[in-house]
Specification:
mainly alpha
Length: 73
Amino acid sequence: MEALFVLLIFSLILGIGFLVAFFWAHNAGQYEDTETPAIRMLFEDSPAKSPRAANRSDTKSVIKKTEGVQYGG
């Protein structure tokens, strides 16, 4: 019977702790924008500028070497 009381008190303390953490996150603005993270992967990234981008012959040779190669099994 003592174990039941200990577990009951422990579970109540744990539940109150999670409730406090939820309200703290809500008041800190954690849940204000739930749409943007879901669609962020759909946005186009701007291409990276690199010194190799000026030399297009490298890119064409890589494309020729990888033509017809099947990826993924």
